[in-house]
């Protein structure tokens, strides 16, 4: 049986040259399956708002909704490190509120770390939360909670913007984060940031030069028809498999083929 993955394990993976695998999960059955399959880090992402709840952005996701999903993931007792995503406006209004909300993810949800979007602008929050011993994963580049400022989900850090993203990366590391997600930035810039930082970088749409990779589970399983960004690799297509099972069930109920005596109580 594999051992529990801790924050020091994740930190050591970079110098030891072991690449970090991270996936999102939002519930008990998916967590059990992906944990048994050996993923290192499970992110209870606020992407749940898009891929599960059907919103167009992650902005409407609430603390209570996130806590519900973090608790469901926790109940699967994964060996993977569990990171809870901090939803929009759970950390932005001030240090005290941010500490309280991050604390709820650990204390009530059972998460082992939190993820906070933002770079230099959120450095004071990352510092305060880290200082109360809540491990923080940063998230810079294309930060989905900044969709309105960015004018859509656009690659960040091209040309003269690159310097700002590098400054964000340093700000996150210097504030005490144990790792940082690099989303939607040019591969060359992501590789440069990875070489500069001592903490691990985890890429999504940031090329092969990061210390690890993260994707949304619904994207790799073919369960999200709405968006298909270039950086997603679909490892299977569960849509038609689910559809075929449901069609057979409906047909058998209609024809009387299901249920039989084998599915009945005497
Ligand atoms: O919410 C999420 O799933 C994320 C990852 C895609 C990094 O933030």
Descriptive notes:
By secondary structure, the protein is α/β, with parallel strands linked by helices. It has 2 domains: 7-235, TIM Barrel; 238-266, no CATH class. The chain has helices at residues 7-13, 28-36, 48-51, 63-74, 95-107, 123-131, 147-150, 162-174, 187-196, 217-220, 238-255; strands at residues 20-24, 41-44, 81-85, 113-117, 136-141, 179-183, 201-204, 212-215. The chain has an 8-stranded parallel β-barrel with strand order 1-2-3-4-5-6-7-8, surrounded by 7 helices. Helix 5 (95-107) crosses helix 6 (123-131). It is globular, with a radius of gyration of 20 Å. The termini are far apart. The mean pLDDT is 97. Bound molecules: 3-methyl-2-oxobutanoic acid. 3-methyl-2-oxobutanoic acid is lined by residues 24, 43, 45-47, 85, 181, 183, 204, 214, 216.
Rg from alpha-carbon coordinates? 20 Å
CATH architecture of the largest domain: Alpha-Beta Barrel
- Which ranges are low-confidence, i.e. pLDDT below 50, for 5 or more consecutive residues? none
Shape: globular
Which range best describes the helical content: under 10%, 10-25%, 25-40%, 40-55%, 55-70% or over 70%? Answer: 25-40%
The proportion of residues in beta strands is: 5-15%
Number of domains: 2
Provide the CATH top-level class of the largest domain: Alpha Beta
Give the neighbour order of strands across the main sheet: 1-2-3-4-5-6-7-8
CATH topology of the largest domain: TIM Barrel
**Major β-sheet, in short?**
8 strands, parallel, barrel
CATH superfamily of the largest domain: Phosphoenolpyruvate-binding domains
Report the count of strand segments.
8
Question: Helix count?
Answer: 11
Between the first and last Cα atoms, what is the distance in angstroms? 41 Å
**H/E element string?**
HEHEHHEHEHEHHEHEEHH
Structural class of the helices, strands and pairings?
alpha/beta
